[in-house]
Amino acid sequence: MENQTQIFGIRAIIEAIHAGETIDKVFLQKGLKGDLFTELETVLRKKAINSSYVPVEKLNRLTSKNHQGAVAQISPVAFHDMETVVLDAIASEKPPLFLLLDQLSDVRNFGAIIRTAECTGVDAIIIQKKGGAPINGDTIKTSAGAVFKVPICKVDHIKDAVFYMQASGIKVIAATEKTNNTLFNVSFTDPCAIIMGSEGRGINPSTLKVVDDKAKLPLLGSIESLNVSVACGAFLYEAVRQRLK
């Protein structure tokens, strides 16, 4: 799994962060101590960089090099400033369409969603800084390169994006089964943002409380839910269908 999108070694990771390298996630060895390791932990907290503590065996699988208890994944894409992207979309001729992803965990689902977003004219995808799937080789492959074409923004919490969208005159619609309203009864023709939840948990309940509208897909079989990338495709193409009328 060793590749060119990794940095290993505590000091090397600290220097990379200070140099402005786009770090997607850092894996830290469980139970490791020391002043330099503590310094790295402090930098990660200050910069709000996604990190997790893992057994040393996980780090050994990530790289055969002397990792010193820390391996960082470099994002292959540069993230965009959400406020700038939103303002640019509002200034464009068509009604903006945004996609908010609430901590999706599967990189292939993430990649498939990015691909569909590009095909449906989504202006930007907003993700949370921590807890979501990274952008790695699998994400890029599944997206068919769309990851380089759709602006992706990171926020501290998805609710930050919700509040900013609403303050900018953009309706926020949650894709959730916790409603009696189907997506066919919701208007997507005005400026709007669609929130998709994680594979297991769905959308955070605190986020659901602040959205403007909720919608679900009608399920006619015995299985209670769709894969999140499939559900996202249905929502985005309903928005396309309404806007093409």
SSE blueprint and pairings:
Blueprint: E1 6-8, H1 10-18, E2 23-29, H2 35-46, E3 51-54, H3 56-62, E4 70-74, H4 82-91, E5 97-101, H5 107-119, E6 124-128, H6 137-142, E7 152-155, H7 158-167, E8 171-175, E9 192-196, H8 205-208, E10 213-215, H9 228-244
Helix pairs in contact: 1-2, 5-9
Topology as a string of helices (H) and strands (E): EHEHEHEHEHEHEHEEHEH
Largest beta-sheet details: 6 strands, parallel
Class of secondary structure makeup: alpha/beta
Order the strands across the largest sheet as they lie in space: 7-6-5-9-8-10
Mean pLDDT, nearest integer?
92
Gross morphology: elongated
Tell me the strand percentage band. Answer: 15-25%
Low-confidence stretches: none
* Radius of gyration, CA atoms, in whole angstroms: 19 Å
List descriptors.
single chain, 245 residues, alpha/beta, 6-stranded parallel sheet, 10 strands, elongated
Could you explain the architecture of this structure?
The chain has 245 residues and is an alpha/beta fold. The chain is 36% helix and 19% strand. It has nine helices and ten strands. Strand 5, helix 5 and strand 6 form a beta-alpha-beta unit. Helix 1 (10-18) runs parallel beside helix 2 (35-46) and helix 5 (107-119) packs parallel to helix 9. The mean pLDDT is 92.
